[in-house]
Amino acid sequence: MCGIVGYIGKKAALPIVINGISRLDYRGYDSVGITLLEENKLSTFKAKGKIDNLQKKLDQKTSKASVGIGHTRWATHGKPSVKNAHPHLSQNREIAIVHNGIIENHQTLRAFLTGKGYVFRSETDTESVAHLVEYCYHGNLEEAVVSALKEIQGTYGLCILSAKERELIVARRGSPIIIGIIHTGEYIVASDLTAISEHTNNIIYLSDNDVAVLNETGYRIFNLKEEKISRKVEKISWSLSAIEKGSFKHFMHKEIFEQPDALKRLLAGKYDAKNSIPKFGGINIKELDLKNIQRVIILACGTSWHAGLVGEYYLEKYAGLQVEVEYASEFLCKAEQLSYRDLVIAISQSGETMDTLLALRKAVSQSALSLGLINSVGSTIAREVDGGLYLHVGPEIGVASTKAFTGQVLSLFLLSLYLGRVRGCLKAAECDALFKQARALPLLLKGQLKGERAIIAIARRFKRAPNFIFLGRGIHFPTALEGALKLKELSYIHAEGYPAGEMKHGPIALVDKKMPVVFVVKKDDGHSKILSNIEEIRARKGIILSLIEENDKDVRKKSDYVIKVPSTIPDLSPIVYILPLQLLAYHIARLRGCEIDKPRNLAKAVTVQ
Fold first, then answer.
1. Is position 2 annotated as part of the catalytic site?
2. How far apart are CA 384 and CA 369, in angstroms?
3. N or C: which end of the chain has fewer CB within 10 A?
4. CB neighbours (10 Å) of residue 16?
5. Element (H or E) spanning 520, and its range?
6. pLDDT tens digits for 25-42?
7. Alpha-carbon distance 299 to 295, whole Å?
8. Where do the domains of the chain lie?
9. pLDDT of residue 606
């Protein structure tokens, strides 16, 4: 849950590493640090809080060092402080390490190393790795790192630097490490592509248990048995503008407005009109196996789990499948029995969410078929599933997910149509009509964005509200959950999402004249029941904010505030209804002075359990 950057080459490392960790600050962090190799000596600078605090310590510092590593830390072991910030140094201060992940046996290592005379300066699990590498060092850093890694239990993305050898060593188990190849002898390494993309589009994704040595003569990749490994050099297509805010004040605001174009890209080339079926390049599962599926299990966390709940409706309706949507972390605790008749769909924007990855591995170990629904090409989940559906919505920098959610929902809709056709549950004409509705979404969303001013006015009204309830029925319940999540992530207002029918079973006790209740209302089969729910809130003097279609006069009359949304078929309504809720959460947070792109205590990619 933090960021790693390393550089080795002929340029000054200091500005490259600082700029790199600045690119990663959206992942969330509480402290920051950098180590430079300067004339056979390691110079380390750390600060608690933001990168600006580190910059103050580095002001007017010039350095000719062309090798350096940097880190943004999100505390796991040990409170946020300078002493717990990375990089961590070995006892002789000749080895520096930055680390993402958790060393599970760090207490055992700490006890062993303390017995050997090592003194620990921090409360972190990472410091045990620095001392262990020194303990194993006998003149060759590569050998010392391999020896140390064989003793480590847990997860790691590591970047290691020695005062005695002009090279970088990186290693990965369960936490991403990417190598960017600028030129032979010049490399940038990072835990995220955003720190690399402005320097090169030639990258290598390390796999678990890979170790790489980078120096002026080139690079080598091997495993812990010291067997040479070949990894494909891939090209990334991101432009620098994709990871910059442009004219927007916040990445989240930009990404909300990118959704029409993002969904248009997602839909491009996704339909075989001749055969009336969606088409995907990466499913890689035989149609016969898909016909024989008896059950689908969706594994996800947070916003992706909400998208999975929408997907459950689609898969049951169009593909005739039994579907279970599981929190990945909870799936790991269950004694679930799977087989080749089960299809597991792992949903993760980053493709690195640790709980989802481990749940996927558990399912695959029981012979289940697997698909990944991901946005990051080359990520761990993308490489471990049988087939992958890429969102192609572009990099998402804001911690609170927006365009990834709508991309996930639309992808699940298309996948359901595909499986429905393969399994004979959906007729060609029906599929054609449904895809036509999906193709209209980008234009609908573009029109919605023109109504931002009205949402800002509502945000001003509710910016001081202490609590919110979000209610929806059927396929609109996940929208209520996601709307509540966005609000609490960004504004720190307590918000809960419920199925509207559950309101009477507890939540109604919270309703008073200070309680805003947001209704997600579609003129469908549940409309009359929603009207009854609204009346119950009105009777208790709750404040009613309703998301409605233009022609819904009944709900408009009973609401204190309304946000109008364009009409589409009920199954695609979660995509058009969530956009104004994203904007509402954004503007309430902005008016409250919250740090929108980096909400407190949150990280973009949760790569630890």
1. yes
2. 11
3. C
4. 21
5. strand 516-520
6. 766 678 899 999 988 899
7. 13
8. 3-241, 251-448, 451-591
9. 65
Q: What is the pLDDT of residue 59?
A: 77
CA angle, 132 then 361 then 303, to 5° = 100
Predicted confidence at residue 328, as pLDDT, reads 94
Q: Do 3-241 and 451-591 agree at the fold level?
A: no
Our measurement of the distance from residue 543's CA atom to the centroid of its chain's CA atoms, rounded to an integer in Å, reads 34
pLDDT at 240: 65
Beta strands in 251-355 (DSSP E): 271-272, 277-278, 295-300, 322-327, 342-348
Q: What is the 3-state secondary structure (H, E, C) of 385-404?
A: CCEEEECCCCCCCCCCCCHH
Taking a C-beta distance cutoff of 8 angstroms, is the pair 175, 84 a contact? no
CA gap 190, 181 in Å, rounded: 12
Q: Of the listed 46, 362, 598, 604, which one is catalytic?
A: 604
Which of the residues 2, 136, 159, 301 is marked catalytic? Answer: 2
Task: Assess whether 523 carries a catalytic annotation.
Answer: no
pLDDT of residue 1: 53
- Token readout for 46 is 């750390």
| Confidence (pLDDT) at 605 | 60
Domain 451-591 in CATH 3.40.50.720: no
Question: CB count, 10 Å around CB of 220?
Answer: 13
Q: How far apart are CA 418 and CA 291, in angstroms?
A: 11
CB 412 within 8 A of CB 314: yes
Relative to beta strand 516-520, strand 543-549 is parallel
DSSP structure string for 29-75: -SEEEEEEE-SS-EEEEEEES-HHHHHHHHTT------EEEEEEE--
Residue 450 backbone dihedrals phi, psi, to 5 degrees: -70, -15
Does the domain spanning 3-241 belong to CATH 3.60.20.10? Answer: yes
CATH superfamily of domain region 251-448: Glucose-6-phosphate isomerase like protein; domain 1 (3.40.50.10490)
Residue ranges for the chain with pLDDT beneath 70: 1, 26-28, 238-241, 603-609
Q: Which tokens hold the place of 450? A: 């023109």
* Amino acid in position 272: D
Task: Give the closest residue to 473 by CA, choosing from 523, 408, 542.
Answer: 523
Pair 166, 37: CB distance under 8 Å? yes
Q: 295 pairs with which residues across the strands? A: 322, 342
pLDDT digits (tens, 9 = 90+) for 579-609: 999 999 999 999 999 999 888 877 666 655 5
With beta carbons less than 8 A apart as the criterion, state whether 481 and 312 touch: no
Q: For residues 360 and 522, give the distance between their C-alpha atoms in angstroms, rounded to a whole number.
A: 35
CB 472 within 8 A of CB 500: yes
Tokens 């008073």, residue located: 512
